[in-house]
Amino acid sequence: MTIVLYYSPGSCSLAPHIVLNEIGEPFELRKFATAELANYSAEYLAVNPKGRVPALATDRGILTETTAMLVFIEQTFPQARLAPLADPFRFAQAQAFNSYLCATLHVAHSHRMRGARWANEAASFADMQRKVPESVAECFGLIEKRMLAGPWVMGEAYTICDPYLFTMAQWMEADGVDPARFPKVRDHRQRMSERPQVRAAIAEELN
Amino acid sequence: MTIVLYYSPGSCSLAPHIVLNEIGEPFELRKFATAELANYSAEYLAVNPKGRVPALATDRGILTETTAMLVFIEQTFPQARLAPLADPFRFAQAQAFNSYLCATLHVAHSHRMRGARWANEAASFADMQRKVPESVAECFGLIEKRMLAGPWVMGEAYTICDPYLFTMAQWMEADGVDPARFPKVRDHRQRMSERPQVRAAIAEELN
Q1: 3-state SS class at B205
Q2: Same structural domain for residues A8 and A61?
Q3: Are residues A102 and A69 in the same domain?
Q4: Out of A71, A100, A119, closest to residue B128 by CB
Q5: Interface ipTM > 0.90
Q6: What pLDDT score does B45 carry?
Q7: d(CA B77, CA B63)
Q8: What is the pLDDT of residues B49-66, one digit of tens each?
Q9: Whole-model pTM above 0.80?
Q10: 3-state class of B124 per DSSP?
Q11: Of residues A58, A99, A127, nearest to B68 (C-beta)
């Protein structure tokens, strides 16, 4: 299986990047910096008509959507045991965690700089930006109290949920949220940042 | 397996409701009308601390998040063959479709009446409401052109993606989007509305 990951530095593409590093099979990285408008070329839109990252090129075609991609990587390389696929309830819990990150936490965060997706006026964008510290903190509050079992998201087993949570926890300071308010999330972030595969992914994205 | 679906009429809980009807195993419905503030009781928040629908009570605990729940129902009752679980790429395509509905289309739609999640000012809510016809139509445009294979979302096989698309297509008129602009989506909606399991789900939610 030839795999190419299209990523943008600092974006949620870091999650599949870390998971691919954990798997240890060869893959190729291609940068598509979403901040640079010149990148919204016909070439990239042919890869992903949504104009977003991540996108994953595989032998069978392109995949988009982080949550789908994380499960695909795990199912393709099951030896790494990064998701409890054989247990429908546990697998659903892992998927629900990732879905919450994708559809609630990431969406709250995106109102800081992507307001034009949902409104037109500068005053609305400013209002949205003021709300981000509160709406993002509310998500981390729920994760802290109800969702993060510890030491990893699902408990003793490290899964595809961990790199995804780590990726979004990296945005806390920029979103105006004090990590000290969420000690379990902070400790998880620290634990993640010590993994060689995570350090390697971050270093690779800085190149 | 004893299954209880917590639903709110007209919400995205219609998708797992239809899938449960398609499976044909007994389950219980419990109404939690999200429009009624009195329903945000300690009792319901104990079921789902997010205060959202759907929630699914199972023998092993509560599950939330529509996309996770749809796969759980399919994995628990695989005889209905409602997702290509054994084929990682096809499964990822189905999951990516559902993720797009959950994290992009549903989010665009929610800006019509849930603006307080992401802003504080009445003027921002009005601005968001004006944008909904455009942002929701953009999603349906992508679904129409690139994602809906036909006759069903994934092609010849009816899957968990179909009730989910149908549920959101039901919101088009209220979102200010003319269904005639998207003939494949419109035909899919018609095809869905002719299924006895879909008619039954809609009738059950009106009780």
Answers
A1: helix
A2: yes
A3: no
A4: A119
A5: yes
A6: 84
A7: 16
A8: 888 899 999 999 999 999
A9: yes
A10: helix
A11: A99
